[in-house]
Description:
The structure holds two protein chains of two kinds.
Chain A: H1 7-25, E1 27-28, E2 31-32, E3 44-51, E4 57-58, E5 63-68, H2 77-81, H3 89-101, E6 110-122, E7 125-140
Antiparallel strand pairs in A: 1-2, 3-4, 3-6, 5-7, 6-7
Chain B: H1 14-38, H2 51-56, H3 61-77, H4 82-104, H5 109-129, H6 137-167, H7 175-184, H8 191-202, H9 204-219, H10 228-249, H11 254-264, H12 267-270, H13 288-303
Amino acid sequence: MPRLSTPRLAAWLIFAAYLLAARGIRNAFPFSVFDMYQARGTTTAARVVVLDAQGVAHELDVFTALHCEPPPQLADALRTCGDEHRPLEYVVRDQQQLLESRLAGQPQPTPITIISRAWTFAEAGTTTADCALAQCTASRGRSSP
Amino acid sequence: MTAWASVWDGHDRRALRIGLCVIAGVEWCVEAAQVAWQSQDPAHYLPGLRLAPALAAIPGAAWILYALTGVGLVLLALDRHPVAAGSWALGCAAVLSEWQTQVFGSPSRNAFFPGAAILGWVLGSLWADSARPRPSRAVRERFAEAGALGCIAAAYVGSCASKLLAAGAGWADGLQIRALVVQQQPVASWSWLLAWREAIVSSADLASASAVATLVVEGGAFALLLGPRLRLTWAALLVGLHAAILLLCTMPYLEPVALLVLFAIPWPRLQRRAPSRAIDPPQDAIPWGVVALLAAMVAIAWILAPLGWRG
């Protein structure tokens, strides 16, 4: 009888079985088709960022204390700013949590504007459009990479 | 079909086995911690379906699940009843994963990579163990390593297939990559990183080239099964892909990177260990029972398709 049962055969059959099983169930541990970013991208994308007094954009986590009256609901960007202001749901949820965890009761030294920035990718080039969500004051901490 | 070759041939695979369990243990610990606090924060996270509220009502349920998973991982690391121990760990981790999916709203694919590798290790062990007389541990773990690599490779090829099946060649236009860069973190304090991110966002050609490279590197991951040199080469490409994703999109996929480093780098040669024993000959007969099990696994996955999570 030929020696057929090699680790290579086992590896390829297990490879094929995982691939086919995952295509069936899509995502059920430990099977996954890893389809997180499978869709063709859209021509617009958005994210909440912070503008300082000079108009320079920063990540929200650069600021250690924020005072906003009232604190903004970042997920409202889509409703208040328009269709192109559609951030990733889990990203804006993390940002909202960060914002709430760093809210300060008193005004802080640095004026900032929390905005939704939408990028449009067109043949002529990439353009951005900003939509203000809240005027706040903040204290600055570390720089983000 | 040529013989399987591994840098671990002739060496004890204990470090490989323990390393696999440590990677899984660390990642699933992170997942348990996330589930523990997210399930207690209904203001920001979903209440979930039946499973999530039931588990959330049990004090310390996430950590109990993790401890149960850990029992399986420890036994697997010690090579005690590896098939049963690995299956137990996967079962407990599956419950934790389902809970995490219900609370967070989507599954944590970071946790799936070590899960897939352990599944492959278990299936490879089962394949070898089906021979009579039972093979030595060295032979069994040779098959286990092959199985784990099979599942790791399938994860990447599956990711490429998902993109091509969902978006066709259009995925290569780079729009998805540009969107991810700006949605995840467009701002950077490091000037070279900011310049790189802005170049991807503003240049359709550069973004498209990045998308094509992503498809090629993921789709070519079957090269992990083609021998130690190609395995090392392709693992380096995959690690490079993960590094680019981390820098451009701040998405840390450290688990697959750790697995690739563990399985592809010739650790025994780096430690200048001489092979301690000859390579065991391959087994004679194909274990048709295990082949049937693999076919059943695929069939069950398709039958249970409505239960799988879809984004």
